[in-house]
Structures are given as C-alpha cells and as structure tokens.
Amino acid sequence: MTDVATARMIEIRSPEDGTLVWELPMASEKDVSDAYAAARSAFPGWARTPAAERGAALRAAAAALRDRADELARLNHEETGRDVAEAREGVLAGASTLVQYAELGPLHRGRSLLGAHEAIDMMVPEPRGVVVALTPWNDPVAVSCGLIGAALVTGNVVIHKPSERCPRTGLALGEALRMPEGVLQTLSGDGEVGARLVVSSDADVIAHVGSTATGHAIAEVAARTGAKTLLENGGNDPLLIDSDVDPEWAAEQAALGAFANCGQICTSVERIYVHQDIARPFITALTRFAVDAKLPPLVDRRHRDHVHGHVMEALARGAERIVGGEIPSGGGAHYPATVLTGCEPGMAVLAEETFGPVAPVRVVPDFEQGLAEAASGPYGLAATVLTNSLEHAQRAWRELPVGTVKVNAVFGGAPGGAAQPRGASGTGYGYGPELLDEMTTTKVLHMAIAGGRR
Fold it and tell me: FRET label pair with 441: which of 72, 215, 279, 427, CA 20 to 30 Å apart?
C-alpha cells in the first residue's frame, strides 16, 4: 500500500469555487508492481470461472452500484462540477452496461468450421489476460463500466486507473463493484502512474479513453510491448445543417450538442456548418438558447484556460463573439455558453477539440461545401446532419469519415450500440457486443482422430 507520508498527492479543488476538496495519495511504483503481480495471480482462476458465474458477479456489481448511486453522483459533482442529477444518470447507465455484459458474456462464442468429416475445426475465444483501463473524468462511471464489464465477463482481469481529476469517484466505483482479490484493482494517480502501467510488459490490453496525445503515446509503447490497444481519443464532431430544416429546431439541437455538460461530452458538437438560407434565424435562436443556458462549471481552471484560449484565438483572427466568451469573476472554473460567428477553417475552434461550451458557426453557401468541410480534418469520432432530404442524409452518412453518423439527432442511440472511432480519434470498438471480441483473442482448434479414419 502507498505510504501516505511519502507519496505524491493528488489535489482536488472544487470547480464551483476553487476551494480545496481533498488530497489523495498517488500509487507508487511498488503499488503498480504489486497490482500486476496480484492480477497475474488471479487471472488463471478467473479465466476458468464459468461465464455464467462471471455474469452473475457483474449483476451483483450492478446492484451494488445502484445502491451507491447517490454517493457516486455526489463525488462526481464535487470533483468535476457535473450536475448531480446528470451524474446519477451516468451511474445508472454504468449499472445497466454491467447488466448488458452479464447477459452477453455467456453468449459470446466462436465458430465451427467445415473440414474433414473425421475432424473438428473450431475458433474459440479466450481472454487476453491483464487489461489496463485508463478512463476519463467527463463520464467516469458509465465509461469505466463499459470497459470493465466487457473485460471481466470474458475472463480478463483489470487494473483500473481513473482520471486524476476524479480519483475519489474512481475508488468508490472499485469498492462498489467488489470482485474477487486481484480480479479488479483501482490505482489512483496522474499521467506518470498511467505511464508506469502502460510500459509494463505485463499489460495484455491497454484501453484508454482520453486525449489524442496520450493515445498516440500509448500506441507507440504498445507497438514495442505487444499489448492490444483500444483507444477512444479526442474528437472534433461537426454538425451539418441543411437549408430545409426548421432553424429553431436546428438551434435547439445545436445548443444541446454544444452546451450539454458544459460541452464536456466525447461526442459534443464542436463545429457547426449552417446553410446560408437559414443562417440568420438559426444564429438568433442559438444565441437565445445560449443566453438561457444554466451551465455547470468546467472541470477545472486549467481546462478553462484551454477553452478560453481557443475562443481568444478565433476572435484575434476575425471571428465575432455573439454571446459569452468571457471569463466570469469569482472562484471556480465557470465559463458561459458561447456563440461565435465568422469562423474560418484553420481556427482552433474549428480545427481542434475545444471540449467546452463553445458553438463556432460557419455559414456555407450550399450543402456540398458544408459536407466537404465537415468531412475535413484528422478526427473521426462522430458527426451529425440535420436534413429533410433523404439524398443528403444518404450522402452524409456515406461520405463523412467518422465512426458514428447521427441523422436528425445530436445524441441518442440504441442500447447495446457500438462505436468505432477512426483516424486521430482512436481505434477499436467501444461498447456493444463487439467490445467482447476486442477483449478476447481467438484460438483455432483442429482436432482429428488418432491414426486416421476408423
């Protein structure tokens, strides 16, 4: 265990007013080593546990998570500023994901192959081993439960490092899930602790949800260690608005996509391309929604500086601030809903991930140019198109080079749906039955009768 007297500490300050909430010790190098030893020791027994029993353990974990939903929501709010009701919804979503994998796990199977009559040919899924899960702060319980649930139900063991911006939430999650010794372990720490976990040759899978820079660094290390990587990195999700939609409704969708959870959602709307024919009423309505928005604070002042830096760079290069874009007085990490117009390609608010309550609007002369610009850039997480044209919807989902395309809804999706980011946004499936395939490796079995045909 970490020696608190000598450990490096994580300091959490309230996003509401900047006061110190608590300090927690970070995992030491020995803690990381011990966690790997415990995981390796627990893996053979957990891998041999019947899939139905592993599923039952996830159902029990989901029930415990629901029992502690209020506590986890409060911790999430205190650490990241997220609205308590929304944080509780995230906890319950995490519990539902665990139940989903409890059901899917025992059904996960390989294939039989047609070969010689006197032989058996099969493709059998097997757990990969030790999964390192590095999870984010913006939806810490729901995201973690997806990776942890899929890993555990397929027979892997997990070392989980939650973001240093929500360590208490991560520790409480680990306590609530209560798996056998060594099967699920939670370590607190910053990027240095994460790096220690990643560079170890004992990691069989590294699953990371977070920044693109960190994802690239993980991929480079994994290329040397041989670890399987699952990476959901940054996004720069476009919203493309056609000329034939109601501008009031389009503005409502844009506001939801850009301002929900203060713009701190992986698939938040990051850039808006609106047809010139409805641009004026759309911007008027979007401005009204922004003025009326009641936002939680950003996660911390460091992140606020990043968001505000993007806004100031755009203004310096000729964008117009319609509303917001100014740091309020007082403590904490508050930032207002912001609408910018006159945005041009190359501005950071269009070219990079802002991850804040900023709606940069670019007016385009036609659907073709909007689609072309929406399809530009290195990221490939998600995109949305609002249109009444079946042809335009078809073109958009075909031509946008992203893992998920949403038509006429900025958020949503069926339970059990998967996502597969592209480009700078990562690699590998997240969620859904497909994540079970990512967490397993395939062994091909050919078994014939000794001595040939009888």
Answer: 215
